[in-house]
Amino acid sequence: MKVLHILLLEDSLLDTELIYANLTDGGIDCELVQVETRTDFVTALETDSFDLILSDYSLPSFDGISALKIAGTLCSEVPFIFVSATIGEELAIETLKNGATDYVLKQRLERLVPSVKRALRESQERSDRIAAEQDLHKSHERLKLLSETASKLLLNDRPQELIDNLLEELFSHLGLEVYFNYLVDRERQLLHLNSCGGVSEQVAKEREWLELGETVCGRVALEHHHFVGENIQQSTDPKIEMARSLGMTAYACHPLLAHGQIIGTLSFGTRNRNRFEADEIELMKVVCDQVAIAIERAQMLTRQRQYTSRLQRLAEASVAINSTLSLEEMLWLITEQSRDIIGAHQSVTSMTVDDNWAQAINTVSLSDKYAQWRDYSEKTDGSGIYAAVCGMKRPMRMTQDELEAHPAWRGFGKEAEKHPPMRGWLAVPLIGRNGKNIGLIQLSDKYEGEFTEEDEAILVQMAQMASAAIDNAQLYQESQQANRMKDEFLAILSHELRSPLNPILGWTQLLRTRKFDQATTTRAIETIERNAKLQTQLIDDLLDVSRIIRGKVGLNISQINLVSTLEAAIDTVRLAADAKSIQIQSWLDPTVGLVSGDSSRLQQVVWNLLSNAIKFTPEGGRVEVKLSMVSAQKSFANEPEPMTNDQGLRTNHNYAQIQVLDTGKGIRADFLPYVFDSFRQADGSTTRKYGGLGLGLAIVRHLVELHGGTVYAESLGEGQGATFTVMLPLIKSEGKKLTMQEDVLFSSQSSVPSTLLDGVRVLVVDDDTDTREFLTFMMEQYGAEAIAAASAQEAFELIPQVRPDVLVSDIGMPHEDGYSLLGKVRGLDATQGGETPAVALTAYAREEDRIQALSAGFQMHLAKPVEPSELANVVAKLAVGTSNR
């Protein structure tokens, strides 16, 4: 317990000693200052401070009431107790009313100690209460300041106007004299003086820019920690030299943080005290947090306004771009709008087709800054840094230093040196709806600063919108082209289907009405047969294209020796070549391995290529067929990856290369990319020299791709001939037996003896009289016993009676089709013909029709028209081992 400092107003030395003795005996450690006169009493109160005043009531030249009044004026908070022998009850009450704490009679000094202790306790409580009230008032004032500040800052989107007022209030509240507010310049990575107070303009100018880490403010911005300095003038820390040079004695600097990111600093200084109190520092921190939030909010609102404005302009650009179907005008709008919305001096939009940069369309937009380069028209080659953007299909944003340091920088093309000087780069790929790259938009030299993440986001949206617009324009152009092609195709189809009918009908009528010699009759029959086969081929091509479009082409996979396949195809077209005196030369390497595929389909591929070569080669020309093996190291278009075929046989890295070369018409360079497109012909006019539907090469490409291979065409131009190359992956496997379909195919290519079906009973079912009579006659020519039925019901009634070895039935018939007939037959007992082998001979020739027929229980499916030898071979195969008679 501390020693109490007590002022005693008493003229009796004895009473003084008694009072002191009572206090010390009562455990009160004190120091008494005795005065007797008014003058001494006032002097003591003015020059010293006391914990307690004890006073006699009656003194020779002074009285206690006067002393009480003086104490109330000079030190009202100090307890005042009367100690007197002459005070009565009424007088005592009067003293208490005048402000005395208590009174004690000298006759009863035992009450002095309790009275003193109570008075001191009450005084302490009163002091504590007053201090608490003062603290509460101070807190209330600070909260009021913070509340008003927060409200004003958050409601004002220009907080800088309020920050100065806020700091003035804070200066008054805390007794401050200097402040500095720095904001981070992210482009220059420096601190810029936003505002200051308490310093001259010269000082402010000298300290306008600070490096991160320089002085206290730079260090606080770099480390994100607040700094508090005391006794600045005595400090030797070089970091606070600026504060020391400005005469500050205490200094505090706080980071302005928003979401953990530094946006600046706010520092305070004073010249009239050496330190700040803890609550003052805390108040500064809270104010700084509010200022940071307000500044960040203002910056965010500014960015939001800019972003909203950009989005509005982007929407307007979208309307403008989508309002045109001209690709050239669309690309110009995309380029101009991109440069305008982002705010850049340079903008280039490039559009490619199938990654073909040689035919890329480039549109350039330059501001007046680059007016001298407005004639710049050098095309990019799509390599280097363009390939990085288009290949990864991701935006790329770089400063000029990053751009020049990028390893692909020189990939701006062979003419990069002629490119306008660049400052930074922002590029966004154009992606079509099929996920493929169709070009890019690139910007350089932004009006202010470097390209930002927001710039990138806006340009990405522009690219997405532009990609969709380009796709739509291309689809429109393609639809227009498709409509033109459709009209051309229908005209060609009508011509190609009608042309064979003319000699067929003409010769048929002449043969019926006139008598000709044997040579003329033979020529007429050959003409009819040739044109019927031509019409059949046209229909087959149409069906193949239909299957291709619907993805319904099926393959009967086996291991194939390409030498025999090519030889068979060459034999098929040799007569056509001889008719035009075209020499067919072949170089077929017999050591080329096997390929996995469908023999008939691969023969169709080679036949189509040879037929095409013969058609477009003039009389006396030459067609060459080559078969060789090439290794995977050989580079060719669209080289396939190693594959596994349907039998699980792993292909190696070697390929069979089939080449068909001719000395014919050749292919124009502009038509070469479209030579394998369906219904595409270099000449679709009514004056065209060459016939056909324009389907053969489209079928070739699809069939080759189904076999895991590739096909491409080469030509030096019109009159220079053409070369078609097919690449097929080779396999490593043992051979396997041919399927029935393949066996029949190969058997039909050789001559068929007229006794092939001797002893075979065949039931022919077809509702068409001509077809039924022809099939019956044909079966009899091969030695079969042929029985005809005109309907499914008639056939079902005949089967138990005649017990045929083979049933040949049409599918599409009135009242009841072939599927229903076979279902009823399979319901019969074996002794009644329920297991009779059946062939579906039908004009329904789609792949799904074949699958449905086999699923229904037919052993074979043959499409009309059919070669007699092929049908005879099928019937013979099915009849082996059957004996229903």
The total of beta strands comes to 28
Please give the largest β-sheet: 6 strands, antiparallel
Biggest sheet strand order reads: 8-7-6-11-10-9
Q: Low-confidence spans: pLDDT under 50, at least 5 residues?
A: 633-652, 682-691, 733-751
What is the rounded distance between the termini? 137 Å
Structural Rg: 54 Å
Estimated structural class: alpha/beta
Name the overall outline: elongated
What can you tell me about this protein's structure?
The protein is α/β, with parallel strands linked by helices and 885 residues long. It has 24 helices and 28 strands. It has a 6-stranded antiparallel β-sheet, with helices on both faces. It has a 5-stranded parallel β-sheet with strand order 2-1-3-4-5, with helices on both faces. The protein has a 5-stranded antiparallel β-sheet with strand order 13-12-16-15-14, sandwiched between helices. α14 runs antiparallel to α15, α15 packs across α18 and α17 packs antiparallel against α18. The radius of gyration is 54 Å and the shape is elongated.
